[in-house]
UniProtKB/TrEMBL annotation:
Keywords: Signal. Gene3D superfamilies: FAS1 domain. Residues 38-235 form the FAS1 domain. It holds the Pfam family Fasciclin. This is Fasciclin. It comes from Bacteroides finegoldii. InterPro entries: Adhesion/Biosynth-related (IPR050904), FAS1_dom_sf (IPR036378), FAS1_domain (IPR000782). Residues 1-22 form the signal peptide.
Amino acid sequence: MKNMTFTTVLLCMLFMPFFISSCTDKIDEHYEEPEWLKGSAWEVLEDRGNYSLFLQAVELAGFKPIMEGKSILTVMAPDDTAFSVYLEKHGYSDISEINLDELKKVIGFHLLYYSYNKNKLVNFRPEGDLITDEEMNKNAGLYYKFRTRSSNVPTIEVEASTGKRRMVYHLDRFIPVFSYRFWDTKKLDAASNYSYFYPNSIWKGAGGFNVSNAAVNEYEILADNGYIYTVDQVIEPLETIYTQLESNENYSIFFDLYNDNTTYTYDATLSKDFGAALGTDSLFIHTHGTSLPAIAVEWYSTKYSDVANNASKAYSVFAPSDVAMNNFFDNYWEKGGYESLDDVDDLAMKYMLNQFIYKDGIAFPDEITSGKVKNMYDMVFNFDPSKVKDKSMCVNGVFYGLSTIDTPILFASAVGPAFRNKDCNYYLYMLDGAGLVTAYSSQDTKYVLLVPTNEQIESEDIYLRTYADGSKLQQETEDGLVDVSSSIMRTIVNIHTATGVDELKATGTQVLTTQTGFNYWYVKDGKIASSAAYNQILEPDNNAEPFVEFTEVKNGNDSWNNGKTYMYDGTALFKAQEGDGLQHKLSVCNDVRYVYYQFAQLLQKAGMVMSSNYIFGLAGASHVIGFIPTNEAISTAIAAGQIPGMDVTGAVTSSSKLRQYLLSYFIRDMENALISYPYPGSAMKNSTYVTASGKSLVYTDTGSSLSIMVDGKVANVISDYNFFPFAFDDGCFQLIDTVL
C-alpha cells in the first residue's frame, strides 16, 4: 500500500468512530479518496513502477522529502530505460558510483521550483494569470526558463587584484523549456533550430514542448504536490558559457582575455541567507566588471524578484578560436605597434571582446543567417552556422566557436586607428569617455577624422594613468591631478572630426566644418591648420606657421569603411577656439600692425566699446559676422570724406551716425539664422541678410569668391587669406577691399 497522504489521515481521523480498523488499512469504499487526490510525486512515480532508478537517485541526492510533499514542485521524470542509457553513456554501472555533488546537480535539474501545468510551461507569464488575451500573446513562449534545484557547490577563488580568497556562490540552474509557442513567436523552424544545439535529441514538442535535451512522453500527471512530466532522456545539467569556454582549450585566448576582467561582487542577500551555513559572512558572485556580461553567473539577474528577465534573457557568445585570435593580431594589432595580445590596450580589448557578444537572448542558426543578430555596435554576425563545430546550449545562453573572424565593423571604421595603433590609444579613451565610439563608427555617415597621437594629447598635460580599477585620462592642474571631464574629451574628439566631405585635398585650398560648432580646418597645398591656430597669424609678433603636414592612415591597403582618417605632424594638439572672442579682439586693439586696427579705432571713436569684451549693438548676440574693410580702404575713405559722422581729418562729427554706419558691417544671429561662417562653398547661402543697423546686406558666394552689397555699394572679400574666415567663439570676420 502506498503511504497515506495528509488528507487521507485527516479523513481517517474524522471518521474514526465508525471504522477505526479501516483507517489502518484503507477507507471504506463509501469514503474512498476523491479522484483528485493522487498521492505525492514520489508516490505517483513509485506506483508506476518503471521509475525506480530515478527515485533511487532522488533519494541518494537528498531530494526525497520534497518529492514526498514537503514542497510543491514540477518533476521531469526519466524512466528506467532512459536512466540506464544515461548511466551507460557516462560509464557508470550503478547510480551509487556517481559523485554525490554531481548526482545532486543532475537530479536537481529535473526538479523545478513551483508547480506548473502544461499551459504555464508552454506560455509562462511573469505578470500572472490575470491578464488579457492580447497580453497573453505578447512574447508568447519567450519566458522559457524555469528555476530548478540544481546548483554547483560554492567555490573558493582568488581575486587577482587583491590576492584575497573569495567564496563564490553558485545560483540554482534555470532549465530551458522550448515550447511550440516559443518557436512560433520567433518565427523559426522548431526541429532544425532545436536539433542544432541538441543533435542527439528529437523535437517532439508540437502542441507542447521539449525540456532542454529531453522530449516529453506524457504531460501534466497530477500529484498532490505538483505536476509530473515523463521525459525520454535524463536531462543533462547545462553549464554556464564561462564553464564551456574554460573547458575547451581551443578558445583559451578568448577565455583568458575575458577572464582578465574578472571581478567578485559581494552579495548581501546571499551572505545573509546562506553565509552562516557555509561558515562565512561574505558570499560573492563571479562577474566581469561593468563592460562585459557576467557569463560566469547562472542567472541573468541575481535578484530573485526579477522573474521576467531571468525567465527570458540570456547571452550568445561567438568566441573566436585561438587560431582566429592570433590571425587577427597579426593582421591588425601588430601593424599598429603592439607586440603581443597581452600588450594590447585593455579598453581596446574590451571593445574587441564585446564584438562577439549578443546580449538580447539566445541566437539560433536561422536568426544568424537571416541577419537578425547584431552586437551592441550594430555589427551583423554573418558566419555560416552550419560550419561551426563547437556549440552548446548553456544555462545562461549559448556558445558558438568561430574558427575565423572578419575585422569587426567598429575596428574597420574611421576610428579604427584608435583601436589599432598603440601610440593613439589616448584618443580611444577620449572617444569612450565622450560616448562617441559608436557614433563615429556608424555606417550611416561618412567621416573625415584627424587622429591625434598620445604625444599630441600629452602637450595639454593629459596622461593615461593605470590604477587597480582600470586606466583613466587625467590632467595635471594647479590643484593636482584631476580626471579629464567628458565635456573636455568630447570637445577634443569633435574638433578632430569633420563631415560633408570625402577627403582632405592634396592641392589647393579647402575649408572643413568640424563637429565643434563654428570651428574649422583649413587645408592649403597639402597642409592643414585648425581655425584657432590659423587666427594666430593675426598677431604681429607671432612667427609660427599654423599649417602642418598631414598623412592618410589606411586600413591596410584600403580606406576605412565609413570615411578617411589622417594624422598630422607636430606636437601640439588641435584645439577649439577658446578664450578671447571677436568682440574682445576689436575692443582692445591699439596696435597699428593689426589688420583690423583702423576699423577698431572707428569703433572706439564712435563710443561703441562698452568694455573689453563687448561692442555696442553686438553685445546681445551669440554669433556675429563682420565684413571689415582693410586698413588701407578705411584710410582712403576717411581722406575722401566717405565715412558718415566723420570729417576728412578723422574727427567725429556725429557719434550716432558713425555707430549706425559701423553696425552695417555686421550681421547678427538675433535677426539671421547663422549656421556657418562665410567662405566659398559654406553652408551660409547666397541671400539677403539684415545688418545690425537694420539695413539689408546682399551676400554672394560664387564658389570661388565672396562679395557683399549694402545700399547698392559692392565690396569684395580679399583673397589674401584664401577666403579662410577668422573664426572665434562669438563670431568671425572677413576682410573686404572697400568701405560700404
